[in-house]
Write a structure and sequence with these properties.
This protein has 18 helices and 12 strands. The chain is an alpha/beta fold. The two termini are 26 Å apart. The model has no long low-confidence stretch (mean pLDDT 98). Bound molecules: NADPH dihydro-nicotinamide-adenine-dinucleotide phosphate (NDP) and 2-oxoglutaric acid (AKG). Pfam families: ELFV_dehydrog, ELFV_dehydrog_N.
């Protein structure tokens, strides 16, 4: 690691050492900026790294709400407004019991570089709450969302900060949040993305992250003269990102062998076709059930309680699409031993640092989430543009723009990596390409 980056990281470890996910994400980025920092002393002179690793603002607030038994519940809400050098803060809201400041700082930090890679004018932010939507009635989710927005509304705005969904926040939650915002401010602002089609949403936003990740992987495969046709693919998760990754990979001719949830994984040796995916979507998006029900429904499929997909079957391509640190060194070794040659992250930081190093060392094509899952936020940017112009593009138009953006991100990461002598290192390329634009804007804007 470059000595300037090393100093900044050591200082951060001393002051924020307990924030392990945040330190992990900063370590990955700083480790790959070395050659750029050596070549461009202006970043050290302007103390860019010191400024980039501290959020511009982090808001923590209480969310009291009333459950169906009439009892008062209290959760903690957060919005981490990380960097606004190239546009308003932009990034999702996560509702999950594990949410804390470390997780939201890592997600906000990643979002800064990801949004820069999209080429759209969006800064980086992230937020959420330790609220657990599982097992809650629609009325309870609404009560919680309304209470959250009673505080959040004063910190966001179409040119200030535009939240969206993430784990545990889908169309239902965005509806309750947007309804409450509109009630309070009496204005139909484009203040959230992932909205429903009848009230300002964009076609293809639900599909965008999963489709985008598959488009990105297809570009990686193309560099070795390959495609998805006939490839075996392991996908984790069964939420928004996983569902549309399954759909697009299957459309491109792949056989997707797995999906999972936080309880376990299913392996289906016959592949997950359109009918099986429709079952998963109904199970997860409507019934809000567990993935093990898939194995009860489809003969040939097997459920593995408490296990992730990576050591359960051999594959050509792996796409972790559930959560952070869900693919570790043992998983990476098993994947490589089984012949996997491409890993494309759909989730944010699903691969541990040592597993990433193992993939890179074994010449596996590996794309970091900040590049390959950027299709979601990019299409959120397209939703903001449509709202600003007060019009709606067709699904075909949005999908074509998304596809073009993913090809551009792939090429930007690849070219930046080649410029610094490591043409196949998408981690280095994505970090350098994402960093440069934000850092140069920070210098232009002064301190
Ligand atoms: N939605 C988007 O547009 C974008 C999402 N991402 C990232 O993609 C990932 C998935 O998000 P998304 O699909 O939207 O979220 P969803 O809530 O729709 O789905 C999340 C999936 O991951 C599983 N999961 C959640 N936490 C854990 C855990 N601790 N261990 C194992 N499995 C877990 C869930 O299982 P269960 O059903 O049991 O909860 C579910 O299957 C996240 O990393 C998110 O940050 C990145 C870019 C954009
Ligand atoms: O669409 C957005 O604004 C947020 C997407 C997101 O949270 C992410 O890219 O991780």
């Amino acid at each position: 690691m470059n000595s300037y980056a090393q100093r900044v990281l050591e200082n951060l470890q001393q002051t924020n050492g307990n924030e392990k996910e945040f330190i992990q994400s900063v370590t990955e980025v700083l480790a790959s900026l070395g050659k750029l920092l050596d070549a461009q002393p202006k970043y050290e002179k302007n103390k860019i790294l010191e400024r980039m690793v501290v959020p511009e603002r982090a808001i923590v607030f209480q969310i009291p709400w009333v459950d169906d038994k009439g009892e008062i519940q209290v959760n903690t809400g957060y919005r981490v407004q990380f960097n606004s050098a190239i546009g308003p803060y932009k990034g999702g809201m996560r509702f999950h019991p594990s949410v804390n400041l470390s997780i939201l700082k890592f997600l906000g930090f990643e979002q800064v570089f990801k949004n820069s890679l999209t080429t759209l004018p969006m800064g980086g932010g992230k937020g959420g709450s330790d609220f657990n939507p599982k097992g809650k009635s629609d009325r309870e989710v609404m009560s919680f969302c309304q209470s959250l927005m009673r505080e959040l509304y004063r910190h966001i705005g179409p040119s200030t900060d535009v939240p969206a969904g993430d784990i545990g926040v889908g169309a239902r939650e965005i509806g309750y949040l947007f309804g409450q915002y509109k009630r309070i401010v009496n204005s139909y602002d484009s203040v959230l993305t992932g909205k429903g089609l009848n009230w300002g949403g964009s076609l293809i936003r639900p599909e965008a992250t999963g489709y985008g990740a598959v488009y990105f992987a297809a570009e990686m495969l193309k560099t070795r003269g390959m495609s998805f046709e006939g490839r075996k693919v392991l996908i984790s998760g069964s939420g928004n990102v996983a569902q549309y990754a399954v759909k697009k990979a299957t459309e491109l001719g792949a056989k997707v062998l797995s999906v999972s949830d936080s309880n376990g994984s299913i392996i289906d040796p016959d592949g997950i076709d359109a009918e099986k995916l429709a079952f998963i979507q109904d199970l997860k998006n409507v019934k809000r059930g567990r993935i093990k029900e898939y194995a009860a429904k489809f003969t040939g499929a097997k459920y593995y309680e408490g296990q992730r997909p990576w050591q359960l079957a051999k594959c050509d391509v792996a796409m972790p699409c559930a959560t952070q640190n869900e693919l570790d060194l043992d998983d990476a070794k098993a994947l490589v031993a089984g012949g996997c040659f491409c890993v494309c992250e759909g989730a944010n930081m699903p691969t541990t640092l040592d597993a990433t190093t193992y993939f890179l060392g074994n010449k596996v094509m590996f794309s970091p989430g900040k590049a390959s899952n950027a299709g979601g936020v990019a299409t959120s940017g397209l939703e903001m543009s449509q709202n600003a112009m007060r019009l709606s593009w067709s699904a075909k138009e949005v999908d074509e723009k998304l596809h073009g953006i993913m090809i551009n991100i792939h090429n930007a990461a690849r070219n930046a990596a080649a410029e610094f002598g490591e043409p196949d290192n998408y981690v280095m390329g994505a970090n350098i390409a994402g960093f440069r634009k934000v850092a140069d804007a920070m210098i232009d804007l002064g301190i």
